[in-house]
Every structure is written in C-alpha cells, then in structure tokens.
C-alpha cells in the first residue's frame, strides 16, 4: 500500500511543466491518487481471490502466478512488458522531478550551469547530473551486493523521513483543522519510522549529513 502512493512530493516539482498549473495540477494529482488506489485495489482483489499469498510464496511472484493461472505461461511476457512500463514511468517521474528540484535550488546562483535551461526550457544540465548520480549509485549498489529487500527498506525510511519533516513544517505553518491533521500525520510518520526499525538510522544519518553540509539561510531579526 505504501509504495502505491509514495512519491507524491516528487510530482509537485513538475508543476512548471503544466501550461495552466492552477487548473491542471490539482486535477492531475487527484486523478493520480484515484488511479493508484484503483490499481492497488484490483491487484489486492486478484491476489486474495486466487490465494496468491502465504509464507511459502514470494510476494514478487504473486501477480505472475495469477497471469499463468488465467492465460498460461505464454502470457508471461505481456506481464513483463506491463511491469517494465510501470517501472519506467515511475523512474521517469522521479528523475525528471528531481532534476527540476536541482534546477530550482540552483537558482540561488544564476551563473551555475545547473541553473540553466535548454532551448526547449528543459533543465538538461541538472538532468545530466541526476542521471550521473543514479549511474554511480547503481554501480556502488552492484559492487556492494546489497539485496533489493534491504534497499526497499532503506528507501522506505527516507520517504517516511521526508513526510515527517513535511508534517512538522505543517504543524508550524498551518492553523486550525489543517494543523491538527499535520499533527496526526506527524504521529503516523513516527509510528511508520519505528516500524522500519534499525534501518531507519540510514534516513536519520542522511538527514544529519545534509544538515551539516548544506548552507543555512540567515534569519532576519524580527522575522
């Protein structure tokens, strides 16, 4: 359930891609939520209906097993193509949004190459930097031999930490019922972080590292 809705904060960085963001951005966000919920609901119903779960079965093999039951082994390639396209779409959104985030943060130094746009108003330099970082991280993961299960848990911790910081910011900036919802979200994020266990220390360590390395803004007196 968590991975169906995780990453909504990345979608916000693509707001500049919309021609009419005030109108189209909320529509796209709500449509994405409904679509993710519908896909998760349909997959859950299929897994429960075909009993494709249990201690002796790998979670990753549930949906391929259902495809084999319904259409035979010759249809597995269709499931592989659909899975590849779904993963590619997610990676595309993450990488593009992260490139936009890098570009927006680089606006503090307009002379930086990361702050430049191409002729088609795309942050190509920032996108290239993000892609190089992804390639480097992929190489390090391959050489270190980390398992996919461990990487997913580490990523979960980072996502939960991001949402926790957002909720804490809401507790400070919002008023009325919105502040109450932010407080409830903070409690839920803390519970999720506790469920991740010891591996949540990775997210805490990354937060501490960024706090020490990133420059701090000067707060004006009386502001």
UniProtKB/TrEMBL annotation:
<feature type="transmembrane region" description="Helical">
    <location>
        <begin position="151"/>
        <end position="174"/>
    </location>
</feature>
<feature type="transmembrane region" description="Helical">
    <location>
        <begin position="124"/>
        <end position="145"/>
    </location>
</feature>
<keyword id="KW-1003">Cell membrane</keyword>
<dbReference type="InterPro" id="IPR050367">
    <property type="entry name" value="APC_superfamily"/>
</dbReference>
<protein>
    <recommendedName>
        <fullName>Inner membrane protein YjeH</fullName>
    </recommendedName>
</protein>
<dbReference type="GO" id="GO:0005886">
    <property type="term" value="C:plasma membrane"/>
</dbReference>
<dbReference type="InterPro" id="IPR002293">
    <property type="entry name" value="AA/rel_permease1"/>
</dbReference>
<feature type="transmembrane region" description="Helical">
    <location>
        <begin position="74"/>
        <end position="103"/>
    </location>
</feature>
<keyword id="KW-0812">Transmembrane</keyword>
<keyword id="KW-0472">Membrane</keyword>
<keyword id="KW-1133">Transmembrane helix</keyword>
<dbReference type="Pfam" id="PF13520">
    <property type="entry name" value="AA_permease_2"/>
</dbReference>
<dbReference type="GO" id="GO:0022857">
    <property type="term" value="F:transmembrane transporter activity"/>
</dbReference>
<feature type="transmembrane region" description="Helical">
    <location>
        <begin position="186"/>
        <end position="214"/>
    </location>
</feature>
<feature type="transmembrane region" description="Helical">
    <location>
        <begin position="28"/>
        <end position="54"/>
    </location>
</feature>
């Amino acid at each position: 359930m968590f991975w169906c809705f995780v990453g909504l904060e990345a979608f916000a960085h693509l707001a500049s891609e919309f021609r009419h963001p005030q109108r189209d951005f909320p529509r796209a966000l709500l449509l994405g939520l409904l679509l993710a919920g519908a896909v998760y609901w349909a997959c859950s119903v299929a897994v429960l209906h075909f009993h494709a779960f249990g201690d002796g079965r790998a979670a990753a093999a549930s949906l391929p097993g259902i495809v084999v039951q319904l259409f035979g082994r010759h249809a597995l390639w269709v499931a592989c193509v659909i899975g590849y396209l779904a993963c590619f779409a997610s990676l595309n959104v993450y990488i593009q949004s992260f490139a936009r985030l890098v570009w927006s943060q680089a606006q503090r130094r307009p002379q930086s190459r990361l702050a430049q746009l191409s002729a088609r108003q795309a942050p190509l330099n920032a996108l290239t930097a993000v892609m190089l970082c992804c390639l480097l991280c992929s190489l390090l993961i391959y050489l270190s031999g980390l398992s996919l299960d461990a990487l997913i848990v580490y990523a979960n911790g980072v996502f939960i930490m991001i949402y926790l910081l957002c909720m804490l910011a809401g507790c400070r900036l919002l008023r009325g019922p919105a502040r109450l919802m932010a407080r409830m979200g903070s409690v839920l994020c803390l519970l999720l972080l506790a469920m991740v266990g010891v591996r949540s220390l990775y997210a805490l360590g990354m937060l501490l590292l960024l706090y020490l390395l990133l420059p701090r803004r000067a707060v004006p007196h009386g502001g």
